[in-house]
Amino acid sequence: MKIHTLSIDIKEQLLIFISEGFSIIECAFADRNDQKIFALEAVWITKVIGYFNDVFPTSKETNQFLHTPYTGLIYAGMDAVVQEVVNRTDNRVQILERILDKLDIYYQFEPESLNLVVQDIDSFSQVRGVNHRAVEGHVHNGFFNKDEESIKRAFAEIIGESFVPNDHGGETEDLYTSRIRLNGQRVRTSIIFNGPGKVRTSQTRTKDLGAGGDQLERMMRTDSSKLYILQSVKPIAQDIVNTFEVFIKDQRSKGNHCYYCIIDGQDTAEILYAYGYLD
Q1: Sign of torsion, CA 250 257 50 101?
Q2: What is the pLDDT of residues 95-128, one digit of tens each?
Q3: What are phi and psi for residue 64, nearest 5 degrees?
Q4: Pair 244, 276: CB distance under 8 Å
Q5: CA–CA separation, 266 and 103 (whole Å)
Q6: Is the dihedral of CA 127, 174, 264, 199 positive or negative?
Q7: Do 65 and 77 contact (CB within 8 A), yes or no?
């Protein structure tokens, strides 16, 4: 089952809740007769349940946290209400620890890297079963000789996008869509396509993108997408990777947890082969 939150973020929050639970127990032992500890417990429970309801796809964790039975201990000189809070909180801290330990067993999470490969994208899932040797006759030294318009329309059909805009010199991307699925969820995506007529050298560089060589930068300066894709029929030069990394990190620092994906000539051929567009 998939969760649309980073694993590291959930683990960090669970550790915070565990620490807060121990703080409640500490307060109870510091003043064994202060029934105000009941209010601290109530606030803590509300925070935990609210977070579980926002993050987890089922009520399993909430029910574990609220309804797992336990055997309480007796603490000499402690008020009965305070004692009950200590026992409940200790039990729930243990439950949080078990949830933390088994998190990776039960769930799949958002990718933590900046860069996705095409196999990470659900909309292109069929490419996961393609052996690279299947497209050897179509790719020569990394070059896949297929016209850009055909590739763009094939991609649109694969992801279920019915609107394919015509190219013009000033666009920030060649295709903007909300049809691509990532981690089980539809995400807004910006795509640049680069056919054989736009790349004169053996590798695609930033200067090959757009009439002024600045299309990648213009696309990345908008923060409306969760996924940014560059497709080319040739291998991709390192300067494109560097540019993507800078802009993705900048967007993430502003709260847009986005990704980039580079689809080179061989990846393009494998996608088209997987979906029946190549012999």
Answers
A1: negative
A2: 999 999 999 899 988 777 899 999 999 999 999 9
A3: -60, -50
A4: no
A5: 36
A6: positive
A7: no
